[in-house]
Write a structure and sequence with these properties.
The protein has 262 residues and is α/β, with parallel strands linked by helices. The protein has a single domain, classed as Rossmann fold. Strands 2-1-3-4-8-5 form a 6-stranded mixed beta sheet, with helices on both faces. The protein has a two-stranded antiparallel ribbon with strand order 6-7. The relative contact order is 0.17. 32% of the residues lie in helices and 15% in strands.
């Protein structure tokens, strides 16, 4: 398993991304409430690929796992320190936790099936995965301006049925509406705020941009800037500025063990 200089175990180097991550990737309370609901009455929760601690419930006993030293260092002071470990080799006994969760992380794992099997092994109850459906990613309007970026995302995110098969038991896939003023700056969070894609730091907080070359960014800056100045973007998509929620690719997958199964 390859790891970057700061310990990042996936394909993105969070030693580079982490410097701006906290500024743009704040937890969105309405999305957080859906994750909390999915966790049910679990008291002890494992958060895998925990990053800076977004979406960790404050009313539970949370154990965080994060391989990136940069992300561990940026965790809020009121959160417990994260353990340096990877999803594929969780250092816990079977059925240690009431539940396990991971958000915006599974597309980074070198071995998805092994990581999800490990989460299922250490959790007695639900395993909650927030991710994106790769079949829907490229339907977003950004594809008109930077198709290479959304192609990267569609390629990296695992299919819903692949996640379900790895989790086993009963699996529910829940569509997550994205609010217009979403505080978490992933790509679709800016569906009605196109100007944010002209902010280099906002782009840097989304790992997909680290996989495309400078010409993609230069074209986006040139074409989107021109379309915003001329009003062309608003003629085509301006209604999104007033739409309170966006039905995009964001999903919460909840795997519950079958009755009588460990």
């Amino acid at each position: 398993m390859n790891r970057h200089d700061d310990g990042s175990a996936g394909d993105a180097d969070y030693g580079m991304i982490g410097a701006v991550y906290n500024r743009y990737r704040q937890p969105e309370p309405r999305i957080g409430a859906m994750i909390t609901t999915a966790l049910g009455d679990a008291r002890t929760v494992l958060n895998v690929g925990a990053g800076t601690g977004s979406y960790e419930p404050r009313d539970r006993v949370v154990t965080a796992v994060e391989p990136s030293a940069s992300m561990r260092a940026r965790r809020a002071p009121d959160l417990p320190p994260a353990i340096d470990a990877v999803a594929e080799a969780l250092p816990f006994a079977d059925r240690t936790f009431d539940a396990a969760m991971t958000t915006f992380s599974v597309h980074q794992w070198p071995d998805l099936e092994r990581g999800l099997t490990e989460m299922r092994r250490v959790a007695r109850g639900p395993v909650v995965v927030m991710t994106a459906d790769p079949l829907v990613v490229e339907a977003f309007w950004l594809n008109e301006y930077a198709p290479q970026v959304l192609a990267v995302e569609a390629r990296r995110y695992p299919a819903m049925d692949r996640i379900a098969a790895a989790l086993g038991g009963t699996v529910d896939v829940i569509d997550v509406p994205i609010p217009l003023d979403c505080r978490d700056g992933f790509q679709e969070a800016y569906y009605g705020r196109p100007e944010m894609f002209l902010d280099p730091a906002a782009r840097r907080a989304c790992s997909a941009w680290s996989f495309v070359d400078a010409t993609v960014v230069q074209r986006l800056d040139r074409v989107l800037s021109a379309d915003l100045a001329s009003g062309e973007w608003d003629r085509c998509h301006g209604w999104l500025r007033r739409q309170p929620e966006f039905a995009g690719s964001l999903r919460i997958v909840v795997g519950t063990p079958a009755p009588g199964k460990p």
